[in-house]
Structure formats: C-alpha cells, structure tokens
Amino acid sequence: MSSHSAPSSTGRNMALIAAFLGWMFDGFEMGLFPLIGKPALQDLLASTVAPEAMTAYLDRWFSVIIATFLVGAATGGVFFGWLGDRIGRVKAMSFSIFTYAIFTGLCGFATEAWHVAILRFIASLGMGGEWALGVALVNELWTKGNRALVAGAIGAAANIGYLLVAALSLGMNTFIDTMRRWTLALGGSEQLAGYLLDNQAWRFLMIIGALPAAIIFLIRIFVPESDKWEDEKAAGKTSYWSTPDLKGVLIGAIVALGIIWSWSPMGIDAGVTSVMAVVITVVGFCVVVWGYLLPVRRYLQRAQEASSITRESQLTIRKNLLIGATLAGIALLGTWGAAQQSAKWSTSAELDANGWTNVAQYTQIATSVGACIFAMFAPFLANMLNRRVTYLVMCISALGAALLFYQTNTVINTWFFTTAFLMGGVTASFYGFFPLYLPELFPTSVRATGQGFCFNVGRIIAAIGGLQIANLVHAFGTSSNAYSALCMVYIIGMVLVWIAPETKGKALA
Question: What is the DSSP code (8-state) at residue 502?
C-alpha cells in the first residue's frame, strides 16, 4: 500500500493537460520542420554554395538534420527516462521541456546549417524524454479505469500538432503578411521584419515554436509527483541508478549517428558500399541496444544484489525491454515508411492532380484527422479485447489500409483522401495503444527508462528503414510499390506479438 496520499483530481488533470499539450506541441514542431526546413537551408547555404549545387546540398543537409532528430529523440527518451526514474517524473519532465524550449528557439538564430543540426539534436533530446516521462506520470496518477482515456488523449496529441501545421501551411502567405504588418506596427524596422519573416518566416516560426513549451514548463509547477515513484524513493530503490552508466547511452547515440551516416549521401560519397553499410548497421545496432540498455541493466544488478528485486523479475524486465522495443519499432517503421510519405507522394508524377491544388497539405490534414480519431479509439479496443489481439488487429488493418492507399490510387479525388484518412488513422492507432501497454510491462522503479527505451529505439529502426526507400524504389520500380513493400514489416508484428506478455486486467506494479 502507498505511504503517500493519492493525488487530487486537480493534480491528475493538470498532469494530463501538461502531457497532452507537451506532446501536441512536439507534434507541431515535428511537422513544422518539413515545412520550413528547405527555405531555412536555402537561406543558410546561399552565401557558401553555388546555385547549381544547391539542390544536392539541400537534400544532404535535410537528410542529416532529420536523422539527427530521430537519434536525438531516441537518446533523449532513454536519458530523460533514466532521469525520471532517478529524481522523479515532474523534475525530469521540467528539464526535458526546458531543453526542448530553449534549443528549439535558438534554431531561429542559426547562421550555419550545422548549427541547426546540432540545436535540433539537443532539442530532440527533450522531445524524446517528454513522451516517456509524461506517459509514466499520467499512468501512475490516474486510476486504472481511466487509463484508456489517458492513453488515447496522449496518442492523439501529436497528430493534432501535425494537423495544426497543415492548416498553417495552407495559410502561410497570409500568416507572414499579417506578422510583417504587426512587426512594423510595433515599431520594428524593415530590416528586422525581413530577418524574421523572409524565406517563409522560418526564423520567426522557430523562435515562437519554443513559447508553448515554456508555457508547459510553468504548468509543471502545479503537477504533483507520482505517489508510486515517491514510494520507490522512500524504499531506497532510486539510489541504485548511477550516473557513470550513462556512458552507454552516449556511445549508443554516437554509433546510431554512424549508422545513419553510412546510408546517407555523405557516406556514399565517402566510399561506403551497400555491403559495408549493412555490416555497419548490424554491428552498430547491437552496440546501440547494448549502450541504451546499460543503465537499466546495471540498475537491475544493483537492485538484485541488495535483494530489492528477484532474479526472475530482472529477467522478465530485460525480456520486456526487447519485446517492447521490437513492437514499437515495427509500428514506427510502418508510420515513417508509409503514412509519413503520403503527403510527399501526393505530389509525385505517379498521381494525376486532377485540378487539385495544395494536395500535400490536404493529404496531411486527412491523415492527421484519421490519426486523432483512431489513436483515441485504440486503447478502448485494447480494453475490450486484450493487448495482443488488439496489436494483431492493428497490424492487419495498417497493412491493409496502406496497400489500399498506395495500390488503388492513380488520381487525386474523393477516394484518394478517404483512403488517406483511413491509412493515417490505422497506422497511428499504435500511438494510442503504446501509452496504455508499455507502462504495464515495467514496474515503477524502471518504468520511465523502460518506456523511453522501447518507444525511442523504434525511432532508430524507423530512421534506418526510411533510408532504404531509395533502394526499395530501385528494386520495385515505383514509390508506391516501395512504400507498400516497407509496410510488410507489419507481418512481423503479427507473429512476434504472441511472445509478448498479456497485461489486460493487471494493475501497474
């Protein structure tokens, strides 16, 4: 029984609101960079890159920045998860939001492309940590009967952010004109307005992108700490975490960046062949898993030596770490390889525009609306059925919806947007499921670290898989066939889920 009083309804609600808004603004920022990334890089590279070489440099830097973001988010999920298990959910989440806010805003003052890559990497550390900490906190504060609602809300949050970005994109010119008038009306100079708002206002959007996170940081003041974590601290279990163990996370992050580099244009230019890249990937990924797992493995060893945990429990946690990471990786690879490619594919030569304009924006709106709805529904389905059957149903549905979208569309019409809505919804249903399921795989003492590892190692899997799209297009002839082939990863999920533990009806440990 807990030795701490249960949190008030106000405290629980504030925790949910903070986690929801934090993840929503993360989704907004994730969707924002694809919108303003290229004009930002054109601005930063204009003085040093010849016009005829600009396209090649843009593509390279864009790939590098996206890859560093994914690796940073994965690393941050593990690091801030570790911090949350050591010093508490609320304190660690405050640090993660602060990190995200400050370094997102600093991107608006970058003067070189590599500045953006570094600042985005650091900002993404906080973004990756925010998910793990927010999910752990709200699951531990809310009663079991409400956890499906909590999971669905968190799952929908990031997709609402994507939806806001699509709406902003449709009204970008009007938005920039309005902000320019306001800047001048408030006494700003033409030079200042140009600095902030030229090149699709990328500097201004980066700067104000930090403000919502800063507001969330203030909300954290009113959010209570998890009573479950407080009990772990009172029992002395948090003392088994050790800062030197974080060297494994650092090594893992460096090696992960090396894997991304080996498949990138920079690696190819350096003479890395496909065979070499495969070897680097296989060996490197094993090192990444070893490094990211080092803090929790050392924790479990110390806890067992102190008789705070049994050998059987230690083995169960290790097994669940690997199973959870695999299930999350499959879902994330499907998302980044299929649903996230839909807006880009909508403007490709494979489709007849049929008189439509702003097709990419409307495609993102369709997929985002579907994602919001299905992510809310998924955890309730998991409560009606069970966890494994629900994951199986989602894999089957996601594969079917992706094939329907990419294999039945040749023209932009009502059917195109209907299938985009369906694919976006079903492939995103996993992100309502994981906030319900992953907390159930781990006890309170390692919950934030475990969740952070599982969900965010999946980002590295997605990054590696996403870099294979060019190879898949070459192998299968068209982008639609390549995306369809990548979605076959869901078949692996249909099989592996049966070795995952069934946790329906079990209280959080």
Answer: P
Residue 24's nearest CA partner among 200, 216, 219, 225 is 216
CB burial class (10 A; 0-12, 13-18, 19+) of residue 314? middle
- φ/ψ (deg, to 5) at 352: -90, 120
> What is the DSSP code (8-state) at residue 184?
H
Residue 184, C-beta contacts closer than 8 angstroms, at least 6 positions apart:
190, 193
Both tokens of 240, joined, read 């088994």
289 to 166, 245, 301, 390: CA distances (angstroms): 35, 14, 17, 27
CA dihedral (255, 303, 439, 92) positive or negative? negative
Distance CA 196, CA 176 (A): 10
CB 387 within 8 A of CB 504: yes
* Backbone region of residue 142 per phi and psi (left: phi > 0; alpha: psi in -120 to 50; beta: other values): beta
Whole-prediction pTM? 0.85
Residue 240 φ then ψ, to 5° = -80, -10
pLDDT digits (tens, 9 = 90+) for 141-162: 876 557 888 888 888 888 888 8
pLDDT at 3: 54
330: its two tokens? 């499959």
Other CB atoms within 10 A of residue 50 CB:
8
Cα distance between the two ends of the chain:
11
Split at pLDDT 50, 70, 90, the class of 1 is very low
The DSSP letter of residue 340 is G
Single-letter amino acid code for the residue at 73: A
Longest distance between any two alpha carbons in the chain, whole Å: 70
For residue 388, report the phi and psi dihedrals to the nearest 5 degrees.
-70, -45
Q: Residue 410 and residue 416: Cα distance in Å, rounded? A: 8
Give residue 223's pLDDT. Answer: 83
* Type and span of the H or E element at 83: helix 54-87
Name the H helices within 237-351: 247-263, 265-269, 274-305, 311-337, 342-346
Provide the token pair at 433: 């499921």
d(CA 231, CA 224): 14
Cα(417)–Cα(427) distance, rounded to whole angstroms?
A: 15
Let me know the angle formed at the C-alpha of 332 by 350 and 393, rounded to the nearest 5 degrees: 90
Q: For residue 498, what are the CA distances in angstroms to 144, 166, 240, 317, 415?
A: 24, 38, 33, 17, 35
> Is there a contact between 301 and 313 (Cβ–Cβ < 8 Å)?
no
The predicted-structure confidence for 301-360, as pLDDT tens digits, reads as follows 888 888 788 888 888 988 999 999 999 989 988 887 777 788 888 888 888 888 888 888
